[in-house]
Amino acid sequence: MPSQDLIILIVQIIAALGVVVSVVYLGLQIKQQNVITKAQFGHSLTQRLYERYFQTSTNKEYAEFMARDWDADNLTPTEETRVQMAILTYLVDIFDVYDKVRQGLVEKKHLDMRVHMLRTGIFRSPTGARIWSFWKNVRDQEFIDWFENNIVDSASMAEFIKKYQEENPEEQENSDSETNSFIRTD
User: Fold this and answer.
1) What angle do CA 150, 146, 163 make, to 5 degrees?
2) Domain locations in the chain?
3) How far apart are CA 17 and CA 143, in angstroms?
4) Across the chain, how many H-helices and E-strands are there?
5) The whole model's pTM is what?
6) Distance CA 101, CA 45 (A)
7) Are 139 and 95 in contact (CB under 8 A)?
8) Residue 101: other Cβ atoms inside 10 A
9) For the residues 63-87, what does the mean pLDDT come to?
10) Nearest Cα residue to 123 out of 135, 109, 112
């Protein structure tokens, strides 16, 4: 009988070790899946930007639209709609990336790239301000405060632009052209 108890004890220890090994393996699989998921989200977010850049470099009509002064008084109704949809696209994109960063699904660099682009003044234009005013109602106060402090705040933008212009004096020469520089401090 004592040998039978010993055999049962050994079997129970082996079974317990099997459970521990299975749990550790499952944990490693979950960790690996999280890394893969983050990489996929990051790739899809980067792909969005690449698509815009690609369109600008290969589609003449799109490039001309992007180069227009989006705040000009002479935009046609169609151009005004295109501007609104482009700005809304940027806004929805920043919503998505901000949420993914908060959830830990993508690295903060994806958000930083977009903030850098949007800091140039799109949301301080009358159209951008109107779109933000309408859509901010769908976001929580934490996001609203973050967005307005990081993207809309004209005082921080004036400082950012001054530093940028000091570091890039050649850009100052191009600032009076009819192209859309996106840089707004008003």
Assistant:
1) 10
2) 2-174
3) 47
4) 8, 0
5) 0.66
6) 11
7) yes
8) 18
9) 88
10) 135
Q: Please give the C-alpha separations between residue 81 and each of 23, 29, 114, 132, 165, in angstroms, as whole numbers.
A: 55, 47, 22, 15, 31
Q: What is the pLDDT of residues 79-112, one digit of tens each?
A: 899 999 999 999 999 999 999 999 988 889 989 9
| Pick from 85, 55, 157: nearest CA to 116 | 157
Residue 60 identity: K
Residue 44, both tokens:
């899809």
Q: How many angstroms separate the CA atoms of 132 and 32, rounded?
A: 38
d(CA 164, CA 144): 26
Beta-carbon count within 10 A of 59 CB? 12
Alpha carbons 96 and 43: distance in angstroms, whole number: 14
Which residues, 6 or more positions from 150, have their beta carbon under 8 angstroms from its beta carbon? 115, 119, 156
CA distance 144 to 130: 14
Tell me the pLDDT tens digit for each residue of 155-186.
665 665 666 677 777 755 544 444 444 444 44
